[in-house]
Amino acid sequence: MQRKTFVRALAAQFIAVGGLFAGASGTLHAQTPVEVQFYYPVAVGGPIAKIIDGFAAGFMKENPGIKVTPIYAGTYQETIVKALTAHKSGTPPVTSVLLSTDMFTLIDEDAIVPFDDFAKTADDKAWLGGFYKAFMMNSQTGGKTWGIPFQRSTVVMYWNKELFKEAGLDPNKAPANWAELKDAAAKLTRKDASGKVTQWGVQIPSSGFPYWLFQTLTTPNDAILANEAGTAVKFDDPKVVEALQYWVDLGKAGVHPPGVVEWGTTPKDFFEKKAAIIYTTTGNLTNIKANAKFDFGVGMIPANKRKGSPTGGGNFYIFKKATPAQQEASFKFIKWITQPERAAQWSIDTGYVAVSPAAYETDALRKYGRDFPAALVARDQLPFSVAEFSTHDNQRVTKALNDGLQAALTGTKPPAQAMQDSQKEADRILRTFK
């Protein structure tokens, strides 16, 4: 009897001591912040990195139990390669901003989880439903939300008002359609005494993201390049060929630079008055505002059969191999950083489109829009915008299209042949997804 009593007492002591250790361990655990590695697609340093660092610091101040570490991973292409390499080696980022068009690739790699699993409260669900519909076209598939819009954009047209005046054009009226664009570009093109062009009428870049800029011509021509499921493309559609022919013809008319036009130097060509009209992302708006030493206009992409531009830019994704605690922490961070006030400030600081109508209702963005109406053009273009081109095995299919575009623009293939060849290659790649 005494032995049983002794054993019980000893057991009780073990339980008490165990409980004490469990409590201590719980305290230690509570003091260890949840680590959220966050891959972000810029090179180290620069103004955007400072803004992101500021957001991370602000979030951690409000959420001391979470440590957000931004990792600046280079270009979008470099960032997805790093993220997927880390995923395959078992040490992925917890969250990353990658192209919205990477959605199908990330799903195919089984690398990400849908946000619907984390949106449990009424407030979470209202937040998830509060983004612009145009941005959700590249964020949802199969009835699930895989990406959250963050640094999103559309392509817009910028024009030099001083050069318009000099050419006898109304500086406050942008070309509204293809015919007006070609006519204005002819009046804006200038040559020196030897006949060399010193100022191009219009410049649409065709390196870096040729497919994206091409959508500024296919969309107004009422052509959609891929189906919603990302399993089929229509590169050889006559309306697509007609859009490419228009682009090639601008070069043949001598009002657009010949061959492949560099994405990266297009804003600089605009600052230096080497191009009177350019097409580029609204994400360049703050850059152009800071560096153009002349009055400029921002307008919607010229229409043909309809208005329209593709959306573009990056989404937040949550990685599958992160721990449940890390996934919950990153969900909290993503919800925090996309709140209307922060989305508004991000838009003002960078030129990207604020991702929700609520952001445009904030005092900060209302005032900015009144003082600088050009900042509202991209938002006003959203009702006419289409999804950025994206398919399964997206990088290979996009390369097939880009190769065809560059072949036509350099004159190595006629537009119809270039698009037929791109179609054949894309069909071959996508065969397994049908």
Automatic annotation (TrEMBL):
Pfam entry (one): SBP_bac_8
Keyword Lyase: no
Signal sequence segment: 1-30
CDD domains xref list: PBP2_UgpB
Cellular compartment(s): Periplasm
Primary location class: periplasm
Record keywords: Signal
Recorded family membership: Belongs to the bacterial solute-binding protein 1 family.
Name of protein: ABC transporter substrate-binding protein
